[in-house]
Amino acid sequence: MSDKKFRFIIVGGGSAGWMAAAGLAYTTQGQCDITLIESETIGTIGVGEATIPPVRHFNQRLGIDEADFLRLTQGSFKLGIKFINWKQQGHAYFHPFGQYGAEFDIVPFYHHWMETYLGNDNGPIDDYSMAWAAARAHKFSHPSRDKRNIGSNFDYAYHFDATLYARFLRRYSEQRGTTRVEGCVVDVSRHGETGYIESVKLENGDIHEGDFFIDCTGFSGLLIEQTLQTGYEDWRHWLPCDRAVALPTESQGPLLPYTQSTAHAAGWQWRIPLQHRTGNGHVYCSRYMSANEATDILMDNLDAEPRTEPENLRFVTGRRRKFWNRNCLALGLSAGFMEPLESTGLHLIQYGIMRFLAMLPGHGFSSLLEQEYNALTAAEYERIRDFLILHYHATDREDSEFWRYCKHMPIPERLAYKIDHFRTHGMVMSDERELFTNPSWIAVYLGQGIVPKRAPAAASLRPRVPVKDRLRDIRRAMTEAVNAMPIHEDFIGTYCRSEAQ
Predict the structure, then answer these.
(1) What integer pLDDT is reported at residue 364 of this predicted model?
(2) Catalytic center residues
């Protein structure tokens, strides 16, 4: 970089804006000017967040203490997601974080499980998930560091208040030199020849010049779309839900260490337990259900008293045609929207930031960085998109027009190819850099009713391996490990209990 400090302007706060500021501040160590512009009059979307394990790596990279973070965000632990009524009414399965069983042969564990139990209800795959064994007992402890211990075979993420997380990262960023400016952007100036953004103007007349601009303005995409007219890919033909109604409730019952997703007639309902309240919402498709119907379903299925009035949200599942356009990067809802079915919202922000930090442009802009960033990020969005489509498409439900549409809709070729492989011979076809690895695909395949016709052949060719004995040993070790764990709420009480906000 030149002697003149490189200037980053982040427009918009919330989780996306302050995650970007924190990542930049930590990485550049005061060698760049970082300004974040946000307005208290513009609300952010984030009444509660469920996450997936990679968020831990983002916090660790920033040197954030886990207990402090959870204490200040009212956080709890998450071992996976329980899906109810997705395959059919009354059916439930669990998508765990971590692996199934333990490896004891050159043939993967799940191949041996299929060879032994395929078509036999006496040995469901859930019986070999440490995450589910702990979750159904309402227990939690950190995974063992000893990889020989069955207690190391699970992973975890968090539930926390996204607004408090943004506040936490604001303090972190400002302590490391980020300047926060209060105000609303009313005008954006561009270079007459290159089309690059040069400055933004606030409603009070102040002008802020920058070298690179990060758009965290939410669905409006003030810079990436309204200014640069980047374009948007609409994926509602595959993921038709386009509305949500959300509200928090009082805490009720045990503090569950997992997210719950319950399918309804034209969508699904989330339940996210935090320390002092529970986040609830109903995601639905407006083609098949009215806002009043969706609200009534949500209110009828709450397990505690509401703390606020319902909030209605609109969205279009999809992504920008470019995430990095000229000298502008879109993050969060400005970049695209994946409905929160698998809790990927913060991951996509994190992925976008970390990828950008690896490709920081400096004063010498190159379109090659922009091209590579866009290609990698588009692939990430599409892999996640296909995993979400699987939940809707692989179902036995035909009890409503919505579910009939989802079951019979055409799906992306790559997803159809993956399903065919698993259904035909039990193989999981993973793409390079897959966020959701084999155990996740296995959980949803089997949970949604895609059962292989046979196990992979190698599992039947090793008769000297005492498979049933090993499976029994794994179940016994899991039971002992879970029995030694504390109750989730008790663990939080000693580790990261937050004060009532």
Answers:
(1) 77
(2) 78
